[in-house]
Amino acid sequence: MSILHHFESFCTIFFDFFSLYIKKILFILFGILLIYFGYNFLHYHYHIVTHPYQSEYREGAMLLSTDLLLKGGNIYKMENMPAAANVYGIGYQLLVYPFAKLFGSTFVIHRSISGVCILCACFLIFVLLRKMKITTLFCIGAALILYVLLLFYATPLARPDGLGTFLFISSVYLPYMAKFSRKSLLLSNLLGILAFYTKVYFVVSLFYVTTYLFIFISKRKAIYYGLFSFFLLFATGLIINRYFETYFLNTFFTSFNSVTNSVAYLWLQCDEFLRLHFGLVIVVMIILLCYFFLLLFENKKNLFINDWHEVFIQKIICRFDIIHLNKPLINIRCLYSLYCMLLSIAIVFFWMGRHPGAYVTYFYQLITPFLLVFIFDWIKHLQEARKKNFHLFFTQYSYMFLIPCLIMTLYRSYSSLPIVRSEYDIQAWTEMEKIIDSHQQILNSPVIASLLLEQKKPVYDSGHTEFFQNAYHFEPILNNMMPSNEKIAEQYNHYLQDIAHDVKEKVFDAVIITNGDSPFVSIETLQTYYSLKQSIDIFMYQAEQIYQLDVWEPQKDE
């Protein structure tokens, strides 16, 4: 008995020491690493914002739209199509407009606004986790993970992705934080509508809230919320369509008609997503394993049951309520973060992730915010479990696997950020600037759209211009509301004919296009009237894109 007593005393002292000192040491190291990562993320973001040239193939299109607004033009007027086509919503441009009016339409202004929106989205996740009484360092770690992932590809650039992500997360989580009160649901409605007019697919936030309310909170609240969302969409849609005749042609039908279904591209993105989220995946696996054992200990006889149909009837069927509007459809507890995460996974897996374009961006915008909250939400749920051993484990020792996994995710994400090659960029871009400066009328590649705007020269291809050919709608239902498909085709073909005419007449004193790729002039036609003078490789580090730009000049008449 004496030996056993001494052994128990030793174990008690050991675990007390471990809990008291090792935990403090781990949290101090974790805090230092968070400061290190946070500084580097901000430093990297600063380089993105201040880089003077385009960092993605179609980034210049946003500057063209803002420039048109500053001149008092209508971005979505038919007479400005297809040159000024913009496949994104008006929300981002309206937010940028007052700042561009004061400081000029520059990349710094556009990217700064995108950056502030990204930081606001991360801060919202931080506030939500703190409201859930999660340790502050873990809240900071989760916010930094979202931050670094939103620095990938095009989200921090002169595009509406940052604003749309913030509005999307706000629309989904603000009512949850306010326990789905009436005021919070009204605010969620408004934010969801704004998200829709920033980037169309973010409207799914309204679907998330409506369906969760209906299934798990109150059918009456869901009906009111859903009907009001529909009313706002319909009413604002009529107003927008009245004053911006090609708005929905550009922002909805262009995307709808351009959708592709590449399963290979989906798996490529899934591989990248899981690689960077490997630390979080480990956490989820540990949580699921612990939850499995919790079920095993709490209800051994029902874990491998023979009367499974009775449990199904008791747990699911008997909890359905389709009659009382004030009650949910199913009277069971479902974590809000889990529900939204599963919906996002389904949307990305079966729809958006199959469309080649924004590489992994949809994963980070739609899945990551819910995955981060779900992890801490589920751990908190397990901490509240009735079994004492699980309560102690998740209260005192969950940090043992959380800290390493969060650090792993931060490190992998930071290591995967593109390398900034500013010296190479500046040299190639400076040479291109000189070429553009020596010409007046240039048929351009989207890569140099921003340079043409800077020198106040016309832009013929913004990167969105070619998409207008896909802006056809459902006939004859919408003919009285939108320009007819015949008028759309006529407008686009007329634009092609004008360019073809100007090429043959050598109106353009230079044609600078992406090597072997121009939607408005064929290489055969170009070779007939122009001569290739030189080629310059342009590298855009943020999107990791390299384009060879060919400079053609008119042949001399014999």
Explain the overall architecture.
The chain contains 23 helices and 4 strands. It has helices spanning 2-50, 60-70, 91-103, 107-131, 136-149, 161-177, 182-196, 204-217, 219-243, 247-258, 263-276, 278-298, 300-303, 308-315, 336-350, 361-366, 368-383, 388-396, 399-415, 422-437, 449-454, 485-504, 523-529; strands at 442-444, 510-514, 530-540, 545-554. Strand 3 (530-540) and strand 4 form a beta hairpin. The radius of gyration is 28 Å and the shape is globular.
Keywords:
558 residues, 4 strands, 23 helices, four-stranded mixed sheet, mainly alpha
Tally of contiguous helical segments? 23
Going by helix content, strand content and strand pairing, the class is mainly alpha
Low-confidence stretches: 300-312
CA-CA gap between termini: 112 Å
Cα gyration radius (Å): 28 Å
Instruction: Report on the biggest sheet.
Output: 4 strands, mixed
Order of helices and strands: HHHHHHHHHHHHHHHHHHHHEHHEHEE
Strands side by side in the biggest sheet: 1-2-4-3
Q: Oligomerization state of this entry?
A: single chain
> In percent, how much strand structure appears in the residues?
5-15%
Task: Summarize the amount of helix as a percent range.
Answer: 55-70%
Shape summary: globular
Please state the average pLDDT score. Answer: 85
* Number of beta strands: 4
